[in-house]
Design the sequence.
């Protein structure tokens, strides 16, 4: 046998069955027949992750969450990538560059646990959010605030 080549029988799905002559099913020739059995897999319920929520430093003073449909809208609202919005802008740019269609941005004036808690509160009634990202928020207290807060799934 050639190394790395598996036997053909490993790739056949279904059952191989030798049919006795007394079978009620009529076959045209004696021998081995392959009966395909229906493949049943457990179903996995998919969560809607099409709308992402972003919480991050924006360099702006307005902390009202904004729904965005494109990178251009982000640039219009928050400006281009600059030091004040570096992590948030890169995350949102990557989201749209890789096919993202819609997201919510909750801008932060500061990255304290209190400011993050307020941003989380402002996103709570946005039940369409399936995934939350907090780019650049790496302080332990802020991470704990994010982990201990639950946004209801839609």
Sequence:
């Amino acid at each position: 046998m050639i190394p790395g080549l598996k036997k053909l029988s490993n790739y056949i799905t279904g059952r191989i069955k030798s049919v006795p002559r007394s079978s009620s099913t009529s076959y045209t020739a004696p021998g081995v027949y392959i009966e395909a059995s229906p493949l049943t897999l457990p179903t996995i319920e998919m969560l809607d992750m099409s709308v992402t929520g972003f919480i991050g430093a924006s360099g702006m003073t307005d902390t009202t969450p904004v729904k965005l449909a494109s990178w251009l809208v982000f640039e219009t609202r928050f400006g281009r990538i600059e030091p004040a919005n570096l992590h948030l802008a890169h995350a949102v740019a990557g989201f749209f560059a890789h096919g993202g269609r819609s997201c919510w941005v909750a801008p932060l004036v500061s990255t304290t646990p209190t400011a993050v808690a307020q941003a989380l509160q402002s996103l709570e009634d946005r039940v369409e959010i399936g995934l939350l990202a907090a780019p650049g928020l790496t302080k332990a207290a802020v991470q704990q605030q994010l982990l201990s807060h639950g946004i209801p799934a839609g």
About this structure: Confidence is low (pLDDT under 50) at residues 1-14.
